[in-house]
Amino acid sequence: MPVTDKMPTAAKMVAAIGLGALGWIASEVFRPLMPPETNFGIFNEVNVVLGLLCGWFVTGTRLGRGYAEGFSAGLTGVGAMVFWALFLQSFNEMLRRALDNRYDGPVEGVTAIMELGVEYGTYMLNGPLIGLLLTGAVLVGLIGEWVSHRW
Predict the structure, then answer these.
(1) Residue 105 carries which DSSP code?
(2) What residue intervals traverse the membrane (predicted)?
(3) How many domains is the chain partitioned into structurally?
(4) N or C: which end of the chain has fewer CB within 10 A?
């Protein structure tokens, strides 16, 4: 990795803000897909932070190499954001259940993270949500690429 990949750039900032905003909007679209009794807590805020981090470190470091690379960088960033969101939300739910003594050991807790991630992933199989994530990914990647050529 070149040393310049660690430097702040306008493209990294735009990608971070774009994925952060996409994380918030996608969280709002996702809420009605879950059961009504779901307690979301700081769900949106966690997903915004994940969007900011994935935009800066995943998408932002891949910008500046052409529009095709920007396109794929946006998709990669959103893929990373969805993966980490599923993992963190599943981990949080597993911890909540573990504090209620629902698991007999740590192995059950780890397998519960995977099971919860798959369950939450099936809730995400929704056309408008998938369309939003894909469209947002492409827009963030292309706008970030455009910014990388301008500044």
Answers:
(1) S
(2) 12-30, 42-59, 71-91, 129-147
(3) 1
(4) N
- Look up tokens 């900032």; give the residue: 13
Are the beta carbons of 50 and 85 closer than 8 angstroms?
A: yes
pLDDT in tens, the chain (151 residues): 565 667 899 999 999 999 999 999 999 999 999 999 999 999 999 999 999 999 999 999 999 999 999 999 999 999 999 999 999 999 999 999 999 999 999 999 999 999 999 999 999 999 999 999 999 999 999 999 999 999 8
Yes or no: say if 39 and 46 are a contact pair by the CB < 8 Å rule. no
Distance CA 91, CA 40 (A): 14
pTM of the predicted model as reported, rounded to 2 decimal places: 0.93
Going 99 to 103 to 107 to 111, the CA torsion angle's sign is negative
> Is the Cβ–Cβ distance between 133 and 78 less than 8 Å?
yes
Phi, psi of 34 (to 5 degrees): -85, 165
CA-to-CA distance for 151 and 148, rounded, in angstroms? 6
Which of 89, 98, 86, 110 lies closest to 39, judged by CA?
A: 89
Range of the domain at 98: 3-150
